[in-house]
Amino acid sequence: MTATRVLVLNSGSSSLKYQLLDMRDASRLALGLVERIGEQTSRLKHTCVGTGETREQNGPIADHDAALKAVAEELARDGIGLDSPDLLAIGHRVVHGGMFFTEPTVIDDSVITEIERLIPVAPLHNPANLTGIRTARALRPDLPQIAVFDTAFHTTMPESSARYAIDPRLADRYRVRRYGFHGTSHAYVSRETARLLGKDPAEVNVIVLHLGNGASASAVERGRCVDTSMGLTPLEGLVMGTRSGDLDPAVIFHLARVGGMSMDEIDTLLNKRSGLFGLCGDNDMREIRRRIDEGDQEAALAFDIYIHRLKKYIGAYYAVLGKVDAIVFTAGVGENAAPVRQAAIAGLEGLGAAVDPELNSVRGDEARLISPASARVAVAVVPTDEELEIATQTYALVGKSN
Ligand SMILES: Nc1ncnc2c1ncn2[C@@H]1O[C@H](COP(=O)(O)OP(=O)(O)O)[C@@H](O)[C@H]1O
Ligand SMILES: CC(=O)OP(=O)(O)O
Ligand SMILES: [Mg+2]
Predict the structure, then answer these.
(1) What are the binding positions for Mg(2+) in this chain (predicted)?
(2) What is the ipTM of this complex?
(3) From atom 7 of ligand 2, which residue's Cα is the shortest distance away?
(4) How far is CA 333 from the centre of its chain?
């Protein structure tokens, strides 16, 4: 029998999301999440689709190596372990692929070296991705391991949006440019949005708002990314859970010269202690909404700053695209936080976009429109599925040669 299963590993800075899929029909066999890796309160939540059983493990999981081994044990308990002959390949999300990787890539030692070299520009993500790759290779050295890069979808950006306004020779020497991230999600969601509209992706222009813990916006013109809000690293752009997003670069000089902070301290401040968390002490939108409902002013201001930045990017991408067919919300906040969607689109009637409050309040896992039928620009919620997209790309690469 030919092997048709693909295991997908999506390692975040402190989490590991995974899915095991049978690519004959892209059906899920198992899925789960390890959260708060490295803390005392780690949690593994595993679901076996076949039996419908969900199991939870609470207690410290030290790193991504331990997390993946715990996941492998859970899969083995369900009889669909990593030692199964049905397993064809393992697909890995890799956040930073630089200019080098524009396609899904079979991982060998030289690919690992290149991903390692990119750690300085994705310090929260590439190390976790590498640990996942190394552990998976050790568990199944015989299997093809495929890297699917967050940056790949954005390599179509024209130089006018990819370049910063600095000396190009200096920029090239240090490979300073805007790479963009969450590309697997932007690709999948923009395509699914076209499907929701009943159109071909090559016919539509879409603004995708990927609002998770990390958050980014992209302008997708006829299926190709022409601009995105993240840059050299995933720090630029929108206000995020713990990242500041855009600020005047002189803030950094000022904090160093006047505030006496070291570069490492500023790096940690902007990546891990800013954004919603820095503004109000919480990075979870559920908690922020709860505080706002109780009249908390600090949480309300954090929310307003988050929305203001989002609106600025929506406006900018209207101008970049010229014609917009849809604005689409995705990822944890985008899929679940109706007040964020309502506030971000409020006042855009002049630009043809509006949200119907009743449609906006519907919850669910399906892609859906939340704009009134009369709106010139559709507004939609399209759940992202980075794991499915990684599995599809992995299977397309490995299945071919099998
Ligand atoms: N029901 C909800 N309402 C509002 N926000 C939510 C809800 N569920 C999740 N979120 C937000 O989604 C975030 C996680 O999004 P996710 O896309 O899973 O992020 P990541 O992949 O970056 O870990 C949480 O931090 C929280 O702010
Ligand atoms: C690139 C990035 O920000 O990823 P995440 O949202 O998973 O942190
Ligand atoms: Mg994510």
Answers:
(1) 10, 386
(2) 0.98
(3) 12
(4) 12
